[in-house]
């Protein structure tokens, strides 16, 4: 009790240290040194520190990917910034050089005083204007389609400032008329390409998503196999501007080769320069960039933004609509997830490579809508599944799906919450499968001890089931294990169930304590519900005999003793010590004890039913005359009954002592009670003294059986007490000792203390009926008349005795 109080006090001190400011920690530590168990407190403190270290490590591992992505982005930004700096410097140098000629021309023009000369100089400078209308038309016809799109900005600018610069020229008026048509043509061409792009990514979004999820799965396998290795960036890669295009416009690469390229930058291993591209790099986004740029130049930014978002929302609703038969195979779920991942990979790339087309609020709104529909669809379709392997594969697929989108910055906590909900369904499916497994093991069991003839066989079974019996180890071969084949099968299946629960708990971002608690709760359901029902099913089967019931008790006892090993097994695979305060204990001992008790009750009932079958063969002659002096013979049915009981109780040697003793006592009491009921049967109206002597002889045989000790463990004549009621009743009538009974009735020292006056009265009235019949036959025989008077007198006294109670 003192150690428990000290442990509780240390736990309180640790909580106070964790929650108290360091400036006020002195009094807390003082209380530790005032105690006498410094070493135990230091062990508790070290354990708490290790626990916090594990939590810190878990948190660091959880946020490590984001840190690596941030560093990757910074490295890429640094390189791009250096490139931009050099480009700006070079552009400025070219601008300065090109502007020198213009500045020189303007200075010459300003220095000329003569207007005519100034006109000639001005005419010479007009050659810097755009070409004449005759030159514009062939160029427009030769640059149809994509080639005309980069000139949209120039056309817009020319249309705005050309009349102001050279409005007095005729060809400028012609250009001013053609520029709006050119704008419309460029805008329509760009919009057509955008529609093709949207249709293409809708068609190939599953391939984009498949690549992204395969990439995330590959990264997970790398992390698990080489935990100390630097993590490769998963999800969003180096952003490329509008110039970053694939080999095809608006489509996924179709050459069947690897979609990875060496154009990206990231965290590399050693001196290698190879990189793993993001799934978004399989798509050519140039139609979006061009159309967005053109509409922005034309002042139609809002129109293009609304159109793009509207079309993508429609595509999102189509992507989020699952197929009706999605739940039938894992491939159906995989295609569903691939389309969703592909959709959001594209949106995430557009968000980070354009300015104003989509924003974070829009993407988050789409993701919230998707999350609600995804979770609803998964709850609905997963509820149809009754295969635990499919549910486990689906869980792993959802984890990869969540990790993939988390790598792109989308919150996925709701998906993991839904996986915890699915764990309940997974447990129920497991329970149904293991119920079938347990019943098959029970039906196939022969309910006999396992014979082993070699050391190899013995080691085989002891490897399957923890058996520690020094006496059994010393026995020579061949020998028998006390339990049947059912025990090692059940123990192995319990471990398989625990492994199945552990597999589902992996990668759910749960602590070791939470995993341990989930496994223990599921195992308790398996023990208390599934296995318990199977054991009771085996006990209640019609063809189960006493030997089988005895073996059920032995099996349950050994399974009960193995629960400690199951506790240790769970602690080893979850790394949670058994002495943890919050650890849930297994209910196995109580489950197997209940099964043993049920089997014991069934043994008692079955044994009594067998006794009743023998008693049905009893054929007493209740009107037999009194024996002349020779002893009566024991009834044949009773000889067979006692032989059966001896053989039955010999099988009880492997049972716990109390069970065998209780069964033996129950059988003897049942025999005594049944014989008394035969005697007091209302249909039996007449009983002679000769019939009582025959019953007396049978009771003596039963007492001899009890006195011989068929089951070890009884002290003295304890088993004889089962027949004491019947023995005293028969002694009272055969010895006709009514004076003693009536005189000592109610006294603790009464010889016939267990004889109830109601029972005695009932039996005496049956004897009086027999006497009346004999008197009619014997006419006026004096002895019969005296005996009949004595019976009448005793009956009156018994009635008076009953009335006085």
Automatic annotation (TrEMBL):
InterPro entries to which the protein is assigned, alphabetical: EXOC6/Sec15, EXOC6/Sec15_C, EXOC6/Sec15_C_dom1, EXOC6_Sec15_N, EXOC6PINT-1/Sec15/Tip20_C_dom2
Keyword check for Transport: yes
Gene Ontology biological process: Golgi to plasma membrane transport; intracellular protein transport; vesicle tethering involved in exocytosis
Keyword annotations of the record: Exocytosis, Transport
Every Exocyst complex subunit EXOC6/Sec15 C-terminal domain range: 414-766
One Gene Ontology cellular component: exocyst
Region called Disordered, residue ranges: 121-149, 219-262
Signal peptide residues on this chain, from the entry's feature table: none
Ranges of compositional bias, category Polar residues: 251-262
Family: Belongs to the SEC15 family.
Function: Component of the exocyst complex involved in the docking of exocytic vesicles with fusion sites on the plasma membrane.
Protein known as: Exocyst complex component
Biological source species: Neogobius melanostomus (round goby)
């Amino acid at each position: 009790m003192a150690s428990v109080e000290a442990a509780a006090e240390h736990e309180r001190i640790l909580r106070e240290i964790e929650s108290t400011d360091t400036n006020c920690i002195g009094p807390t530590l003082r209380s530790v040194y005032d105690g006498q168990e410094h070493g135990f407190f230091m062990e508790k403190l070290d354990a708490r520190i290790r626990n916090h270290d594990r939590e810190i490590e878990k948190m660091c591992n959880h946020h490590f990917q984001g840190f690596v992505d941030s560093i990757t982005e910074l490295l890429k930004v640094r390189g791009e910034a250096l490139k931009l700096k050099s480009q700006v410097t070079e552009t400025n140098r070219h601008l300065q050089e090109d502007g020198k000629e213009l500045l020189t021309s303007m200075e010459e023009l300003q220095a000329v005083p003569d207007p005519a000369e100034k006109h000639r100089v001005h005419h010479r400078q007009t050659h810097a204007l755009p070409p004449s209308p005759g030159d514009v038309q062939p160029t427009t016809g030769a640059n149809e389609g994509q080639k005309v799109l980069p000139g949209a900005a120039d056309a817009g600018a020319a249309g705005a400032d050309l009349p102001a610069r050279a409005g007095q020229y005729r060809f400028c008026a012609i250009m001013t008329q053609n520029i709006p048509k050119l704008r419309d043509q460029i805008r329509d061409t760009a919009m057509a390409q955008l529609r093709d792009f949207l249709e293409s990514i809708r068609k190939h979004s599953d391939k984009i998503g498949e690549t992204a999820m395969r990439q995330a799965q590959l990264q997970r396998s790398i992390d698990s196999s080489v935990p100390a290795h630097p993590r490769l960036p998963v999800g969003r890669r180096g952003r490329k501007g509008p110039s970053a295009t694939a080999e095809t416009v608006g489509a996924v690469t179709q050459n069947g080769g690897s979609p990875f390229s060496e154009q990206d930058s990231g965290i590399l291993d050693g001196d290698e320069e190879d990189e793993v591209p993001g799934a978004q790099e399989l798509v050519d986004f140039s139609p979006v960039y061009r159309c967005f740029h053109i509409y922005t130049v034309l002042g139609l930014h809002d129109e293009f933004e609304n159109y793009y978002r509207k079309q993508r929302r429609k595509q999102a609703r189509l992507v989020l609509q699952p197929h009706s038969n999605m739940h039938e195979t894992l491939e159906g779920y995989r295609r569903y997830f691939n389309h969703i991942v592909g959709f959001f990979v594209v949106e995430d790339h557009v968000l980070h490579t354009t300015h104003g087309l989509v924003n974070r609020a829009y993407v988050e709104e789409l993701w919230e809508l998707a999350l609600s529909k995804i979770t609803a669809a998964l709850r609905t379709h997963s509820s149809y599944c009754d295969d635990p392997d499919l549910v486990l594969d689906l869980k792993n697929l959802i984890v990869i799906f969540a990790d993939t989108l988390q790598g792109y910055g989308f919150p996925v906590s709701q998906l993991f919450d839904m996986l915890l909900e699915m764990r309940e369904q997974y447990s129920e499916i497991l329970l149904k499968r293991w119920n079938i497994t347990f019943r098959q093991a029970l039906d196939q069991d022969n309910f006999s001890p396992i014979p082993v003839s070699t050391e190899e066989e013995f080691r085989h079974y002891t490897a399957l089931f923890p058996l520690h019996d020094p006496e059994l180890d010393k026995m020579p071969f061949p020998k028998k294990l006390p339990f049947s084949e059912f025990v090692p099968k059940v123990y192995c299946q319990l471990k398989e169930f625990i492994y199945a629960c552990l597999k589902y708990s992996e990668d759910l971002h749960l602590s070791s304590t939470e995993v341990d608690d989930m496994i223990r709760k599921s195992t308790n359901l398996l023990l208390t519900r599934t296995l318990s029902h199977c054991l009771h099913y085996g006990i209640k089967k019609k063809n189960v005999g006493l030997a089988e019931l005895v073996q059920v008790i032995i099996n349950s006892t050994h399974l009960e003793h193995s629960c400690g090993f199951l506790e240790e097994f769970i602690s080893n695979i979850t790394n949670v010590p058994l002495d943890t305060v919050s650890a849930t204990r297994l209910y196995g001992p109580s489950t197997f004890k209940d099964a043993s008790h049920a089997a014991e009750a069934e043994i008692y009932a079955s044994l009594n039913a067998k006794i009743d079958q023998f008693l049905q063969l009893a054929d007493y002659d209740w009107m037999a005359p009194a024996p002349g002096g020779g002893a009566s013979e024991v009834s044949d049915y009773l000889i067979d009954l006692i032989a059966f009981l001896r053989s039955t109780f010999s099988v009880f040697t492997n049972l716990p002592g109390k069970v065998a003793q209780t069964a033996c006592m129950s059988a003897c009491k049942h025999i005594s009670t049944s014989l008394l009921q035969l005697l007091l049967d209302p249909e039996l109206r007449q009983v002679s003294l000769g019939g009582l002597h025959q019953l007396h002889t049978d009771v003596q045989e039963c007492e001899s059986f009890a006195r011989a000790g068929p089951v070890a463990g009884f002290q003295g004549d304890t088993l004889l007490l089962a027949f004491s009621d019947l023995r005293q009743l028969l002694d009272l009538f055969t010895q006709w000792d009514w004076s003693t009974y009536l005189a000592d009735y109610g006294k603790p020292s009464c010889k016939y203390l267990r004889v109830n006056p109601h029972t005695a009265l009932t039996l005496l009235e049956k004897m009086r009926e027999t006497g009346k019949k004999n008197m009619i036959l014997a006419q006026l025989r004096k002895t019969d008349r005296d005996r009949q008077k004595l019976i009448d007198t005793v009956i009156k006294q018994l009635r008076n005795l009953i009335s006085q109670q």
